[in-house]
Fold each of these.
Amino acid sequence: MSTRFYQTGTFAIGNRLLEPAEASAQADPDRANSLTKGHRACQGCGEALGARYALDAAVRATGGRVIAANATGCLEVFSTPFPESSWRLPWIHSLFGNAPAVATGIAAALRAQGRTGTRVVAQGGDGGTVDIGLGCLSGMFERGDDVLYICYDNEAYMNTGVQRSAATPHAARTATTEPVGRQTGNPFGQGKNLPLIAMAHEIPYVATATVAELRDLERKVARAMELRGPRYLHVLVPCPLGWGSDPAQTIAVARLAKETGLFPVFEAEEGRMTGVSPIRRLLPVEDYLRTQRRYAHLFGDPGHPETVARLQREANRNIERFGLLAEPGEDGEPGRRGDLLEILETDGGERG
Amino acid sequence: MASQLEGSLAVARTVARCRPQVVCAYPITPQTHIVEALSRLVGSGELAPCEFVNVESEFAAMSVAIGASATGARAYTATASQGLLFMAEALFNASGLGLPIVMTVANRAIGAPINIWNDHSDAMALRDCGWLQLYATSSQEAADMHVQAFRLAERCSLPVMVCMDGFVLTHAFEPLEVPDAAAVDSYLPPFQPRQVLDPLDPVTIGAMVGPEAFTEVRYLAHAKQLEALDEIPALAQEFEAGFGRASGGLLSGYRCEGADTIVVALGSVLGTLEEVVDERREQGAAIGAVAIKSFRPFPSAELRAALSGGRRVVVLERAFSVGVGGIVSGDVHAALSGLGLPLHTVVAGLGGRAITRRSLHAMLDELDGDRLGELHFLELDREVVERELTRGRDHARPGPHAENILRELGVVGAGPV
Amino acid sequence: MFEVRIHGRGGQGVVTAAELLALAAFEDGLQAQAFPSFGSERMGAPVTAFCRIDDAPIRRREPIAEPDAVVVQDPTLLHHVDVFGGVRDGGFILVNSSRDADALGLGELLERHGPTRLLTVPASEIARARLGRPIPNAALLGGLVALTEIVSPGSLERAISQRFNGAAAANNARAAHDAHVQAAAQLARRAAPARTDG
């Protein structure tokens, strides 16, 4: 059973009390530094933080045998400014929509070469994963290819100037969903819930994480690397520039996303939930929304209180569906168990 | 030893003997028999070690090939028409990254209107994507070209497209020889990647390149293709020595000695063209034909040498550049610059319309009578076209061209069903 | 060069017929090229396949517009598709039917080509008897061999055994043989009157 620590701000307590193998990979002076210093990410970039933790965890779990495929996007651009690269593992960038397929090809080559110890990680932002890369991602899932796909979700096409993606939350302002006239930012609609879509493929492992719980992110990567077949990790990574949040508060903002219920943090295997990271101290969505200028139009005089209320209902629905406040079960593990259909059937009251 | 085989099957078995380690494909008419056969060869263990990946689109197919090739595996795929276009972005990516992927293109027309039959518009639409492009004049040559293609790709670090006419060659059943396995192994050594994703020696592949270096990087692709102008004939010569028959090369001439009129073409039409040349030679005409086998790189010097003895050139094309005219003829024209040779472009065989001996004779009769013109569409029904244009002028909502024309031809009924 | 055009409907093995003929020619040491008229073939739609046979390698690649022989696997095509278009003077015609040429409305054609050039053979019935299913392609080829002698009966049988397995190979070979015998007998009767006077 993994050890979880309560984290406040950017301090993680307890690393020095743990066995090295259980401590964060980042605490190891000989860590891989897969994404090393010198890259061009913005101050406070959630994606750079998440990628650093995730890749080093993957490298540690595999004894240094990881090949990475990266979609076009912020991570790719800021990590490889010609003529430099901050990647210290073998890394390929092909196109925007094909990271999953390129990863499939790498995995196929390794299999043909009999190199089963070398593992493949594919990475992309929300745009490259949820929109343009969805076909390739689904194909990779369906074929059972041995690839861990990590989506760093900053909820818009940030690299190109903050345009809306299918992962952009309702009511958020982006360059293509400006709150002008009677618009209140990104329209409400079905949205694409990639973690649930991944679960519908019944792949070996699906998990969500945020950069507020970095040890949890590492643990999930390690868990994923224990398994074979397609695995999907969806990481919420605040973008101070695109979200209009304080670069020093990236981790705090990510925590608020979880603690309000807007971003459920859970794990699932083969289409069935196996664990939840519960909300420790439930907060109203407003606490989260107010930290970001992309929601500023919802407040003020008169603002859009009905939209805020609708977002609160969405958070409530998540809490109900995923059991984010559920009491621990008899075995001590928190949260609700449930397969995808059970999750979808649960209606946390009136839909927004 | 030859046996009666379908063109697709001969290609599949030949590709298998080239020992690809990753084969990925998405089905599209008329390439399906090739990938189906490879799937069976992998499934039976005859082609091993090899991973056969059933992908969800052609874009995925080329992307899987990119990942596999970058990991040091010999990678192969096949497609046609719409599929080739769907992977367009990935084609440029593969050539830009210098990955030696080999792909069969079973040439087929591009819609709209949707058409499953043979012409060259697919490969021609991607002539600038940086891939080497070879055009087979027969199914035997198509099979043989794949052996040479893997060697060429890995030598030049550039991907190679082997084009064979869809249906006409892929689905023709004729005596074909699958190159001997031992001879293939001798001709084609294991893949030695020039760049490879390896945890023991990490590299970054696919970084952004800005204005300060992009020109040089792109020029290098061009330089490599020009080097291929020497590689291709050398590999063809070596092939002939090892396998006992001439296949591939940059181009080949048929009865061009002393020819006044030379017809230049690509692909399977050369077979029919050779018969027409023979028939006209018997009538006393001084006529020959040139088959361009390597379209990219374009063999300008060799073509100039082959044609400079003639008095006029006809370029017979199975595609065209809308709004201007011929595609191949543009490159031919440039190659003949300064020679003052009259050049006629004849666009024929679009969307699978057969190029027959009769139509070629008619074309050459027109040429002899000085009636051919610079740009000629073979067997174009001008009256049908005129009527459709008139319909367009006379009606506010004339309806779709295809439906109107098919109705005229009696292929669809006159009224609502 | 000898050019054969085969007409039928999707599902009747028209393409296989052309390939069997090509295989048989190969067995006889000849060059052969077979290919279908390519289309979005559905079961029951008219289908055409072509086979060229020659001593020398075959270079042309176009549909056969002036066939030396036409085979019609499905008589319902007769007055519906121009199956005989371009057939050469003195060309061979073989129709799958238990009825004779006149009954099929082919009297004029019979006149033009002559009784040793136009035959009907009940290939579907022969196939049903031998295979249990009315797939007439192999049987018709047996008739074609009798009519044109373009390939040897032995090579046709070898081709059949290469293309089919087990019982299917044996039964198709028998069907081809039956049709060959029937066709040969018809031809003999037609030739006979000119030879048995006096």
Note: The two ends of chain C are 39 Å apart (CA to CA).
Amino acid sequence: MSGFIDKTSNIDAAEIAAEYRTPDQGVSAKSNSNVTWNEYRKMTPRANQAVNAITTAGSQTLQARDFGGTAGMISHNQAVTTGTSKGASTVTYTGVSSPTGSGAAFLNANSGGGFGNFGLGSSGGTSGISLTGVASFPSGSTLHALYMAASGFGGTSYIEVSASNSNSGWTTMYLRSLYPGGSTTSGSSTFYNFTFTYPRSDFTYTYTSGKRQWSVYTGIGGNMTLTGFSILLNRPFTVEFV
Amino acid sequence: MEFEDKILTTDDITELYITGVIEDLYLNSVGFFNKGTYNYPGADFTKEEVQAADPNLHAMYWTNLCMYYASGQNGGVVFSMHVNGYLVNITLGYIQDGAYHLCNTLIRPDKDGTRGFMRNPEYHNNRATNEKSLGATIAYSYCDVGSPMNDTFMAYKNHFGPIEECNIRNWDTLKHLGQVTQNYSTSGQDWDGVKSEYNVVFEKYSMEYY
């Protein structure tokens, strides 16, 4: 089972390879021996411990600890609607949810009842991912959902963790969407992997039946500065909690 | 002028969103929306709030809609027309019981900054060929009440009807069928920003193929 890279232990190439083995190919795992440092560079939100500073592979210093507290995942993106003709409304679910995550109630894309993968390559699972040793989450915490339900002119993004009731465990989350090769082009423009920052203070916290949930509505009438998780689309991405 | 009409997948829609094409299509179409009574059905906001929304929110709205049609649920299909390799149009619709139902269109100028391609018979022949290839034997379209598109439809009928090269769609059969009211609900689900129950009135048209 995949997991977050433990920030408190020594991080070596083998550990990074175990979690980040397939930078660009989603669930079709690349052989670990074929993954170079320049490919890993595209994936971490940090370069030399500075967040969101990565624009081109090979131009910046990379440290093993830049990967601490991160994990790779694969987002699923699927729309549902109320009707079949003009005038219908659509809700698009984007991200990952285990069968016990709330997203599974709306969208049973996989036979297991959840959607997306908690991990990259063949190590990615669908039952959630341990947060033990990540940021200040209590030991035994499991991330069960990180997704957005987008409809109309906005949507609600959710983070769900199983643990006892406490609005703590992290202060900032970074999401980094991964394009094949680290960038994508359109016409004369090049778009590089970009890191999105989410302060916990922007989220509303609730606790129900062993599930801690943070949510934020982005769009008209809501938070206009944060980018909803829909930016993850159906691509691999990395998560970092601090 | 070379035309190619493609059927888009959800991965294609993702790419068009990332690279800003959907936002560009919206920005080049919104002026036409605002000339008519175009609205965003089901959106639980005022027209002023919708119009003031950041273009990226509009791009997200259209991306969500495109994703649904591209997923193929309930016969949904997304066509994209390319002029000399440049995407100029996305059209959302669905195939049901041998009929193609045109629901929404986003359009932008070609590489040269013109929309002259709209009056080229090959533009419409390419699209209509794709519609027929999916099993359509008749086409329906739904237009906002009061939209200038209602006049455009009749102008197109007069323009393309006599042109011999327009031999896939039979423009002479274009008919206004009157107004139809479509009712919707979220089936009891509470969706942020979406009305639970709503209805919309459209002008409905039909056209036959050769």
Note: The longest strand of chain A covers residues 142-151.
Amino acid sequence: MIMILIVYLTIGIAELRYLRREKRKKRTFVILIVSLTLLLLLSEVLYAVRTSFQISVWIEALFGPIDSWLIDG
Amino acid sequence: MEPQSVTQGQLFKLFALHLFSTMIAFMLNIMLQSSGYNAPAGIMSGAILGLAFSFISYKLAMRRPDSFFIDYGRHILGKWLHYPLLLFIALSNLMIAIINIWELQDVLTQFYLVGTPSWAIASLCGICIAYTVRFGVKSVFRAAEGLFFISLLSFLIIPVVVSENFEWFSGKGMITQFSLREMWPSAYYTSSVFGEMSFVLFIFPFLQSPAKTFRSLTSSMIVSSVVVILHVVPLLLIFGPELASNLNFPELELLRFMRSGSFLETLDPALIALWLISIFVKLGFIVFIISLILARSCRLKDTKPFVFPITAFIAIGSLVVVKSNIQFKSMMSGGMLTMFVIAELIPVLYYLVDSIQIKYASRKRASSP
Amino acid sequence: MSLLPKLWKIAILLCIPAMVTGCWSSVELNNRAFVNLVIVDQTDSGVELTLGIPLTNRLIPGFTGGTGEGGGQEPIAYVTRTGATLEEALQKIQGDIPRDVTFGQTHSIILGSRLAKQGIAPILEFVERNPLLRLNTNLFMVEGPVKSKVARMPSSFERFLASVLNGYIRNDQILSTTVKDMMYSEASGGDGLIPMLSFKTVDPSAKAGSPGGVGTAGAAILRKGKMVTNVLSPEETSSARLVLGQLKRYIYSAPSPTDGRNVGFYTSSLRTEIRPFRTRQGLGVTISSYSDAGIIASDSDIDLRKQQNIELLEKEINRIANKSLMEMIAKTRKSGADVFNFGHYLSVQYPKEWKTIQQDWRAYYKDRLEVRVDSVISLRRLGSSTDSFHNKLKVDEKEGDERTWNLSP
């Protein structure tokens, strides 16, 4: 859990330094920080519930019927 | 971003590498289980089907070869449809990358790096891929160009060294037991892999001589399907359909089947290393597509800032996507590939709407003086 | 300020080697026990598993402890444990060995006949599921309790029994059955022939260096993974090897059609084709084997310069080959074991008919399958001389010894 936070923080700092060096628009900074935060939250949530919930369950539920209809029907 | 920096040769090599490494490394088990003797026929038909998806994508791209689909797409379908569809494509590419990394760490921890935690493998793969992509589209294609011949050689060497174990008569089964019904599942699964060529739509402005793109795509399809069939047929001839469908990693068992005593029989780790790198190149392309979608949708100048976060998310996602091998298998045959096919068919929708719009516009122009 | 990015890079570079994945699960070579040979048997107290592990500290002759014993100690250790199941026995062995048991170098598995009678399916399953054990691991069988025979047997030609077995397989001297052959198809899964090894105990008074005590002898028939009472003799096993296309350089003798005296041959099988056919009564297979033969010795007065005599000889050895083939196949049919996987050939050629007989395939094989044998042996070589010694020098039978070249396997 903490490792994920550290990984994202490292990436964030490195990218922000790169952006600052290239003197990019403020908008770019904002987009980067927002997307990083979103991804971080999503990663932490998924990791925290990884034993009880998996993404694959949703995918199977959504696309499974189409798949079986195509293959078997 | 550098326009017109990718040659057609590089495109051909990237897609060929992408297709045959994915098929041989990950898909053979499902093919043999669902189709048995009809797997080679299924793979051939699936490859042609996948090429057909890409053809429509190509036609759409050729109408505006110098602008990015991500930009002009919203003029075709309207931005309320365009951006969600783009998000869906990005998500399915994300899933492709996640399950590929999961499968990589599954193979490695079971056979070679027993005891290594998955996060170490996922993060190392992630770092390699992220670094490749961060330097721009050119680096991914350069990597493909460099790897292509060695990778091709390593895939082709295997049928040759195990050829003494073939029972040629079993090959007759491919003709006598031909059945369209049995062939269809592997054709469908193969088309989901070969259809990934339709994502060439996104990188069209980067290509030199865009009109020749379809020729490169066709050559990739032919080379890859030949290589894959050169792997499936030995599996059927040596193990037979019943035993081969029971094996989780038939290609690894094939590698180990070389006659005892020769040094080649323990050569499989070296070949696995080459296969790994080929998968990295493929995933580099996929990560580039995802970051391209995100960057251009936000009207950013380049894709660089997004590469590392996306790769990190992929690496973490691969740790949480499934609980076990069994769940993975049921997911793969229970809908995952359909999600990819839908993503690959989205350009078809755009093409149809675009064609109607063009016809409507030309009719309007013709009717008004 | 310009130093900081460099520090970042150095820091990351230092972290990466720490993540080198090999370090997690690396096991020192010295810390591994490479299993050469797996021996499984059934005893009263359960499954007895013996692992033959070469001892690296004894492999260099003369260095065994610096006391100049002259290689008196065996370079291999046979570790035996018994458990209720194979896995339990394996766990006990691993618990007693200070190194990590590794199966990656295992090429042969020896089975005891008592275990074979009970069923070898657990062994086949273990090999198939284990990622390190290959599917082309060879199977052998020994009659009676295995461990004592193997442990007592010294081998002179090779250091390890496993090398002897590998040599047999490499030189095509023995029927080769792998785990994959036993599991090839569902309809005849578990049917096969497993070569039997014979162990002759070395006479303790014999001189040191006398030939080792292991040899090849016949084959066991397995049906559904269980050994049946019928056993193939060594001659019948060579016919079986002919069917499988494994017979290289086989030496035997046949009576000459002219005077009944023996002529010695060696045969090399080129290829064997098994082709299914269909008649109105049902299905059948034809076994066509093509071999080259040469004459080793002749004690007969047959004139080998005439072509028609050569053809007479060919006809005679063809007849003998066909006869022994049919007898061998009849033996396997009596046991109801489709050891040559004829079912697979039928399924490939006639899939529709195969579907109807698939369920009761073994019964069909036993009673209704038609088997035709067609051997084509071409006598191509006469050796370095043409006339037999007997003919040339007209050795009178009354004087001197009557020497017959009798080279039976």
Note: DSSP finds 13 helices and no strands in chain B.
Amino acid sequence: MGWLLVNGMSVALNGEKSLLEVVRNAGVDLPTLCYHPELSLHGACRLCMVEVEGRGVVAACHTPPESGMVVNTNSAVLRRLRKIALELLLSRHDRECTSCLRSGHCSLQDLSNRFGVSDLRFKQERSEHLPIDRSSILVRDPNKCILCGECVRMCGEIQGIGVYGFAHRGAKMQVTTAFQQDLANTDCVHCGQCAAICPTGALTIKPQVDQAWRALNDPTKTVVFQVAPAVRVSLGEEFGMTPGESTMGQLISALRTLGADKVFDTAFAADLTVLEETEEFLERVSSGERLPQFTSCCPAWVKYAEQFYPEFLPHLSSCRSPQQMMGSLIKKFYAKRLEKGPEDIYMISVMPCTAKKFEASREEFTTDGVPDVDLVLTTQELARMIKEAGIDYVNLPETPPDRPFGFVTGAGVIFGVTGGVSEAVLRLGYERITQSELEDVVFEDVRGYSGMRKWEVDLGGQSLTLGVVHGLANAKAVLDDLKAGKVHFDLIEVMACPGGCIGGAGQPISNVSRKVRQERGAGLYHDDVVTAVHKSQQNPDVLEIYEEWLTAPGSHTAHEALHTTYRERGSLWNGRAGVGSKA
Amino acid sequence: MIKSRQDILEIQKSYGQALEKAKARLVVCAGPGCVASGSLLVYEALVQELKDRNLYTTVDCLLEAEDEHDGMLAVSSGCQGFCQLGPLVRIEPEGILYTKVKADGDDIAEIVDAVEVRAVVTHLCYHEPHTQKIVSKEEEIPFYKHQTRVALANCGHVDPQDIRSYIHRGGYQGLANALELTPAEVVERVLEANLRGRGGGGFPAGRKWAIAAAQESDQKYMICNGDEGDPGAFMDRSIMEGDPHSVIEGMLIAGYAIGASEGYIYVRAEYPLAVQRLRQTIKEATDHGLLGANILGSGFSFTIRVKEGAGAFVCGEESALIASIEGDRGMSRPKPPFPAQSGLWGKPTVINNVETLANVPQILTKGVKWFRSIGTPESPGTKTFALTGEVENTGLIEVPMGQTLEDIVFTIGGGIRDGRKLKGVQIGGPSGGCLTESHRDISVDFDSLKKVGAMMGSGGLVVMDENTCVVEVARFFMNFIQNESCGKCTFCREGTLQMLQILQRIVDGHGTLEDLDLLVEVGEAVQLGSLCGLGKSAPNPVLSTLANFRDEYISHVVDKRCPSGVCHNLRRLVISEEKCRSCWLCVKVCPVNAISGSRKEPYKINQEKCIKCDACLSVCKFGAIEEVY
């Protein structure tokens, strides 16, 4: 493939698409604010400029590498250009860093420090302070927007929705929504990936930490926590640990230190989901109706389907998500055991996800005015509480979760990574269909990170076609193919976020990195290996709940407590009235 | 239907014969300038007058007529160029040009009277401003005499609404010639002619064609860029309105050369007449078999669609133009890939400007050698300009490349108005630069202009006299750029804003010497770092004025004076000792108590305190308050 010179050092070309990749692979961290390897090229920030002999100054991100190029990344001209570019970006930026949620995780702040931008020669003349949109679970502050367009491309290209676009020209340009509506009045599905990829504090998750403290300080409330699988392999990152390092034990100790009365594991509810969803699937397979079945654990996906593909709603599994199954168990069953009313219990979920906040507020999940889940905190928010409380997270002793909703299997834990739900269902489905014990619980084919995976599995003569997609644009492609009759599936797992829940927008900020996602995923698979039980159907506490309360998977009681319904919503796309994000 | 070269020649001949039968052809200019001064009314009045006198005829009547008769043709043409003196009416075959013709009054009757007896209405003819000598023939008027018309050869002559009129002047013979060559040979001719892009950059059109021709693709596109956006420029508009078939023919030849079967004309919606004419022309060409399948029996098929732009300056930039056609926001995209490799909908696409395309049929008709005999070796051919500003003769002109500024401003333009002094020339619009009086002898071609920090641009040419403030000119263009930047890249969006704010400070009297250095530093960064041509050329007006008129900037920031007397906030209000009657009125209205004095003594304005609100100026009954620059 050839060679080129980067700062006098010879570098081999290995099929890189851009000079930027080559230079970074060569160990030179060229700055960028608008480049993301998973999105289309934008070429707007102009920070990755390099000098190429014979061509002068070019932007490395959109210059294809050629053998024999002589590249300089650090000339006087380039240093001056970068500094001016940063000064210009800062000239109208809201620089209230001290009170910004993204302080410390802000690419603009990092680069300003790195390039020693200390003397801003441009007067700060933002003529008007643009209104901040707090209508949704995300906060959009255009005064902090550097117009890199990452949210625009993330929502349009990865999620296939396109809530954001550019409007106006020159310095009046803004990233905004259609008709400049509040986020709550758009097609947003609350996946939060725009906030995850935003390099500054222009898009953040609306903090609800204060509500958590209020509940914890309220002596009349029994505060019950549940922790989603993906949180255990990412929370440590906030405390300097490597992504994928499982810290469930410390996490539970931290919650107890913060004042939690009970701490349960959402993976338990995931085990319950496996039993319910597999039962439902097997029924549909035998009747041949409403196939393919779509998973329904991901609230962003559910809202997406409700908005854009209502014709597929009957195909969605009617199972509530694990978060809501746990909420139901706690408020309808466990409360009685504690001899309390559901309103006396304050249920807090710790989720890797922003859409879970929306899900908890859906009216389907409120019984007699009492929500099943009172508050959803993201991994980021819990980290903030732990830091506020001054807890030395890394050195906390490990403690186990409370019973009965604390015993989990590996099948429940891998729900947090793309393909995990399918694999967990297969571990049960295999045994149900073949009537024999599954020896090797690992389904390699299901694992991996390509956006759309399809494979056929032969279960004792019964051939099933399974699909796993993550990223809603990939889901859209599958749905369109299904509509056109081009493909056949029996079961399709959909997760809105790239990588599944481990890549959720509530996770510690990594600016959407494939590497970090895969490390977190490896952490969950490792947890599966070290967990004693690998099949949901072997979770003794789950079986006990059925005996004591739910009777059997798919029973009337189970349906009342663990299943739900969906509704068609309007969207800007199909022109139906009632566009909105009302829960 | 036109199916062969023979059919074209037939039409040319019969139309020519028909014209010869008429007593005269009265061509009323319906270019933008003349329309603005009422030429459409002139045309209507003329038609009415001819009808009243039973002299009115049409080409179709003439075609059927046996021999010569008294009938006269009235035609509304595209821009004839001399906008300053419009409405213009030219009498053919004599070539007499009448200026400032009025629809009401006796002008029309006098003209028709004169045509009947082959006389001249002298008071409507051009008068040399200095000698008052009457020049009746268009070609002898200095404004026209020193021009060379290639792209505008037909503009102002043909009837843009009649394909036969275009064919009569040799139209579609370039296409016929091209279709007898291989596409590669056509590319080769345009390369040899070294036809460079007239839209501003001067990139050789043949090179673009060659790259696109070399791409393997099931579909390629040919786009005509008619998004002329420079303030005050109307060259492309004039061609699209006045000679639309030349654009169509140029696109056909280009499409054939690169292997495209579909073309788009991107034209701004603010040019409604151009849009209407182009649509009508496409229909006319299609009806005659010159667009559609198997053109002239060659097997080559080509269709053209008109796409109206919403009037964003940046859409003149290739990648933004493509985005706009695709239905996206008009915003520049990173290059490479270049459009010739991957353009409209990812297919190889050539984008040429209107004027470039209007040259193409001529090259294919008259030959490469002829084309290269005009202009300079590196910039062959001609360039059109919209000549405006403080010259005697403003209008649409076309000159051979390599002509000097002196020729353009003094010979064609007739020099500076009212005998004032030339200060400089702003060439190339918002992307161009300001040249000084000392650049009088510079050769106007792509490379020479670039060397001195200016740019051919699409052809705006604003002549400035000593009453023009170059700082204000720079601020004006920077304001334009800031409004028209697509906003995508950091340098263009934020850099030009900062430059504008600095310039605003300077004209407001708050500038410093450090500001001048900062302007240069930011300007150079914007030039180097911007994503597209708009940003890369945006600082030119500022940097060139800073280089060529630094003294004037220094007057603004150090002395707080505007030597040209333009910058309002740099005036000083002073009280004339002779005129002041110490009436107290100004003291009473001054909101900042800047005026002081005692009875019977002339008052004084404290310049430190004065906010230049002009309150004193408006109340003084004796005209004692004076503005001093």
Note: Residues 577-583 of chain A have pLDDT under 50 and may be disordered.
